[in-house]
Specification:
Blueprint (H helix, E strand, L loop, with lengths): L4 E12 L2 E13 L4 E5 L6 H8 L7 E6 L2 E2 L5 H11 E4 L11 H11 L4 H14 L15 H13 L5 E5 L7 H18 L2 E5 L11 E6 L2 E7 L2 H11 L1 H6 L12 H8 L1
Helix pairs in contact: 3-4, 3-5, 4-5, 5-6
Bound molecules: adenosine-5'-triphosphate and magnesium ion (MG).
The site of adenosine-5'-triphosphate has 13 residues, from strand 1, strand 2 and helix 1.
């Protein structure tokens, strides 16, 4: 399959006064559609810089970032803003919810940019909040919610318009370990359900056990790029989400009619 994200010779240099900081140096990378990709590495290695270039939040100094067929590194600011609204979602470490809006209004924002009417927006946003276990919090404002709840609102907002790719920068960085697992579980579940490509920066290496691909950044370069095998990943997820999976209510059986063979035995 053709990669959904392709990075070629990416370089990012920041200027601070007379100093030059080379944050990314000749990065090449490809991410396949539907993949969960974790970007890991020490503090200051260039993880957020890379994510910001991938998501079109910053312009590279050199090189190209392709999302599908689109070279986002050559787009104007206006084109980029439109492209982000149509195709990309972003989850921030600090949630970035608008404090004057309710949870449902925050989640509905990406739909407003797509021209969906208010009533339908709020309906869809409330549905998305329900999926995140926040059906009862739709009318709460961010200050009336815990950190984990606010981040789940942030996740609902990222997923509501069904973007092709979602980027997340340390989305569980402000959460305790139990909430981290719950939030991570929800994000992965939603990504799988929607077939979304999911790219997440984390400095907690153990979280990357749930990824299909783990990219390690060191001093602005890709140090390693490893595809995980399905069995190892399934085992890691079963272990990490053990308590959540135990609490999940099993799905209702689709039909309650007896099977043919059972009917026969009833007659006898
Ligand atoms: N806006 C900026 N101006 C100048 N230098 C910057 C800027 N943003 C990042 N840098 C520098 O670029 C390098 C990479 O920073 P980046 O934020 O990408 O690191 P990171 O891997 O995300 O670190 P952390 O794990 O601490 O978040 C660092 O040396 C940082 O100081
Ligand atoms: Mg960072």
């Amino acid at each position: 399959m053709a990669p959904i994200i392709r990075v070629e010779h990416l370089r990012k240099v920041y200027r601070v006064g007379h100093e030059k900081v080379v944050a990314l140096n000749d990065v090449d990378l490809a991410i396949e559609p539907g993949e969960v990709c974790c970007i890991v590495g020490p503090s200051g290695s260039g993880k957020s810089t890379l994510l910001n270039q991938l998501a079109g939040l910053e312009k590279p100094t050199k090189g190209h970032v392709y999302i599908g067929k689109h070279d986002i590194s050559t787009m104007t600011e206006n084109e980029l803003a439109k492209f982000r609204q149509e195709h990309l979602g972003f989850i921030f470490q600090s949630y970035n919810l608008l404090p004057s809006m309710t949870a449902a209004e925050n989640v509905a924002l990406p739909l407003m940019f797509k021209g969906v009417g208010r009533k339908e927006r709020i309906r869809l946003a409330t549905l998305e909040l329900k999926k995140m276990g926040l059906g009862k919090r739709a009318n709460h404002r961010p200050t009336e919610m815990s950190g984990g709840q606010q981040q789940r609102v942030g996740i609902a907002r990222a997923f509501v318009a069904k973007p092709k790719v979602i980027f997340a920068d340390e989305p569980t960085g402000n959460l305790d370990s139990q909430t981290t697992r719950q939030v991570l579980y929800r994000m992965l579940q939603m990504a799988k359900e929607n077939g979304t490509t999911f790219v997440m920066v984390t400095h907690e290496r153990e979280l990357s056990a749930v990824a299909d691909r783990v990219v390690t950044i060191m001093d602005g370069k890709v140090e390693s790029n490893v595809l995980m095998d399905a069995q190892t990943k399934a085992a890691a997820q079963a272990e990490m989400f053990k308590d959540i999976l135990e609490q999940e209510v099993p799905a209702e059986p689709k039909t309650t009619r007896p099977l043919k063979s059972e009917k026969k035995s009833e007659k006898q």
